[in-house]
Amino acid sequence: MVVVRAHKISIRFEIRMVPSQARPKQSWHDLAGGSMPEMDWDTQGKQAMAGLEPLRFLIGRWAGAGVCHGESVQGELEVTGILDGTWIQARERLVNESGAEVHADVTFYRFDVEAESLQAIQLFEHGHMMLQPVEMTDDGFRWVTGPGGPQVFFLRHEDSISYSVNLPGEAAAAVEMTYKRP
Known about the structure:
10-stranded antiparallel beta barrel
């Protein structure tokens, strides 16, 4: 029993330890209390790996050029598989003609086993973050952002990739980039 006294007020409370029912752990991540799909750890990993397969063409180094908010830019894009290969990390950096950085971001792609869908988690300047579902298209993929968000489309070409970002209410794309392997 614990007694706390402050200004002539006493509060008494008891802490009782109640044993929980034992259950097998699938991983130490289980201890964090998050929900776990109804499948074993290895099956989850295999499904996450297979779900990312449509985006693996991005892996590698890319050099590009395009336009960012009306300004000509050069871009560097480096895409790697990380952790056990069930995440893809894409780092992009855009610089203007004088070499000043005008945009930088890091995007993590993953396959959400529970939702059975691809996701993009983008981190960019000023502490911003976006979490978007990813939908495969006939010639690439797009981020599903809804009518009030930026429309982001990635196209896969024979020897290059390109993307555009269209902001709501604007006729011209805010960003258009084309990348090739150096």
